[in-house]
Amino acid sequence: MENTFAKLGCAKWLVEALNAMKITTPTEIQKNCIPEILKGKNCIGGAKTGSGKTIAFAAPMLTEWSKDPCGMFGIVLTPTRELAMQIAEQFTALGSSMNIRISICVGGEDIIKQSLDLQRRPHFIIATPGRLAHHILQGNEEFVNNLKRLKYLVLDEADMLLTNTFSSDLKRCFEKLPPKDVRRTLLFTATMTDQVKSLQDSAENKFFMYQTDKLDDVAVPSTLKITYLLLPEHVKEAYLYSILASEEYKDKNCIIFVNRTVNAEILRRTLQKLEIRVTSLHSQMPQKERTNAIHRFKAQAARVLIATDVAARGLDIPTVQLVINYDLPSDPDTYIHRSGRTARAGKRGEALSFITPNDVNRVHAIEERINLKMEEFDKVHDTAVIRKVLQKVTVARAESLIDMDKDGFGEKRKIQELKRATNKESGKSFRRR
Q1: Angle at 185 between CA 182 and CA 186, to 5 degrees
Q2: Is a pLDDT exceeding 60 seen at residue 417?
Q3: What's this model's pTM, rounded to 2 decimal places?
């Protein structure tokens, strides 16, 4: 018997909306989680990146909401602003025929405008924990009372939210939500940590749990090609430019991941001077610029996105064909999330990692985690890089550093970090490299 969203119990109007988006056959996590959530169960859902987790929680929530579409119904909490905006877009698209009201509650946006929006009783709030906690702390009595009537709480990228980074903000949010035995709680993740698993047997809050078979053994899809390039640190920019300008990759959409905001800015400016259509995404950018960068990349006005790990989780941009780990992450799970920006929903993709001699231990940890060996990248040759582009790239990089110095890049962040007296490393300017 053919699997359809109607057979899973989704509302007719929602099935029609999914069909209009050419989403007709449920994925494994959708087939297993949607019926259980519609039965009123709490749920923990684990599946590899790109497997349709958002619809797995959005479809049952929207189906239940449409039976009585008034007032605040659910909150989705997620770790990054970009992911919150993407989820909000999906909810808006799915519920457009039902005049759904969505409020996005994230940092970097006008807080007064957000506050007014929240007072209008949106049906769903998509938020980052810090900003929602701020509104709760500052919010009026009507808003807090409306929160107490919510039917659903979703933690998307639950493994990251259930860390110390978000603990105080989550606590503040949870205190104003309905009790656990009244609301439904849904947790979804691509990384099933022990902390997430431990909630299943919580005596006070039982969960239905589903994860794809041997989730940890299939951390990356079979359609993803895993490669590495061993090279000295000082020629990384030259190799990067050679790859992006090569015949094989010159028309491909690519996300380049770096570990520091300063590296993202240096690379963006350098590649721009080398006439690569590039944009960037990192925490030192104003929210408007971050949003514009995502839109430019999705519209292919820029074919290269240079990003820190604010883009590593959840972002669904189907056109991405290549992910480059310009800086290798220290956490193997971060590598998995970064690589998951390509080869999504059965499509093919490639994840290339630049490896310096200092990265060997990190490589071994990643290979052990994904249960795969990286293949050596053989599309660019040493002599060709050195002869053709090294001097040109070196000049472009030097000019970029001068421009960044003139623009005072990093100064605003340093002031902010001094005020908060936290995260000293990210407060360093590029001169301290």
Answers
A1: 155
A2: no
A3: 0.84
